[in-house]
Design a protein that fits this description.
The protein has 149 residues and is of the alpha+beta class. Helices cover 47% and strands 20% of the residues.
Amino acid sequence: MPWWGWTVIGAVLLGTETFVIDAQFYLVFLGIAAVAVGLIGLAGVGLPAWAQWLVFASLSIATMLGFRTRSREKACEATGSAPQSASFGSRIILPACLKPGESCRVEYRGSTWTARSIDTEVLSGEVEIARVEGITLLVRQLHDLGPPI
């Protein structure tokens, strides 16, 4: 395949991951490997087709194993999404009373979040996070099981 073919395939893979679907960073590393094979061809290294595919596969696997987890974590931090397990049971203080189903803005982990009540009673003061949906904290009345950890 010519060098520009690999570059086009890499750009399509990167664009698909960025703008179309969330493939959990797998397409990013496939795209990076394809662009790298294209750059090797552009540099004048004439590889047979089987060697190009071998380099592509090797680079794809190496970059996924070496960088995918760290890159995915950094991207999640940058978008403000938090893993549910890290937030479950955490306590926050509401700035005002919150009726069932209503939302308000709260400070949590150095950012402003939307908190929505999933309780059947009016909430005020300290509440706990039941779960996280995107960038919305679903909160309920504090179930006191002792001091926070």
